[in-house]
């Protein structure tokens, strides 16, 4: 799990009549955690520029260490979990939902990262 990535792919379209930018945001929710976690946690984002009526494929790779949180021992950990995934323009403007599972043993993370590699085509 330490070197694994969560890969989120989706298509975005500008349905307007003018050029525009959208900052797409990715949030997660841990459905069952050993400690209280945020309802939605921002884990990735990308600015996408689109001509009028154009669409693009966007892929954002999120380092699994980014999902780490402090457990009861105050260690930064990633633990097995059922997660919900949200994609939208804001935490309230969610347009896509999905879920995924983190399997394996609880992992102590030496250093939490915030890194997301983005591919837009």
What does this structure look like?
It contains no helices and 10 strands. The chain has strands at residues 5-13, 20-30, 41-50, 55-63, 69-70, 76-78, 81-88, 94-102, 107-108, 116-120. Strands 3-2-7-8 form a 4-stranded antiparallel sheet, with no helix packed on it. The protein has a 3-stranded antiparallel sheet with strand order 1-4-10, with no helix packed on it. The protein has a 3-stranded antiparallel sheet with strand order 5-6-9, with no helix packed on it.
Overall mean confidence score, pLDDT? 90
Strand content: over 45%
Question: Between the first and last Cα atoms, what is the distance in angstroms?
Answer: 28 Å
- Shape descriptor reads elongated
Which fold does the CATH topology refer to?
Immunoglobulin-like
CATH homologous superfamily placement? Immunoglobulins
Write the topology of this structure:
Blueprint: E1 5-13, E2 20-30, E3 41-50, E4 55-63, E5 69-70, E6 76-78, E7 81-88, E8 94-102, E9 107-108, E10 116-120
Antiparallel strand pairs: 1-4, 2-3, 2-7, 4-10, 5-6, 6-9, 7-8
How do you describe this structure in short?
With 121 residues, this protein is mainly beta.
Q: Keywords for this structure?
A:
single chain; mainly beta; Immunoglobulin-like; 4-stranded antiparallel β-sheet; 0% helix
């Amino acid at each position: 799990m330490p070197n694994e990535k969560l890969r989120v792919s989706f298509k975005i379209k500008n349905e307007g009549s003018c050029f525009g930018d959208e900052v797409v945001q990715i949030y997660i929710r841990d459905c069952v955690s050993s400690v209280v976690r945020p309802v939605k946690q921002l884990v990735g984002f990308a600015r996408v520029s689109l001509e009028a009526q154009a669409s693009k494929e966007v892929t954002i790779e999120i380092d699994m260490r980014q999902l780490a949180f402090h457990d009861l021992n105050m260690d930064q950990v990633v633990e097995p979990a059922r997660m919900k995934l949200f994609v939208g323009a804001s935490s309230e403007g969610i347009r896509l939902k999905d879920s995924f599972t983190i399997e394996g043993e609880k992992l102590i993370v030496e250093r939490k990262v915030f890194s997301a590699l983005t591919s837009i085509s």
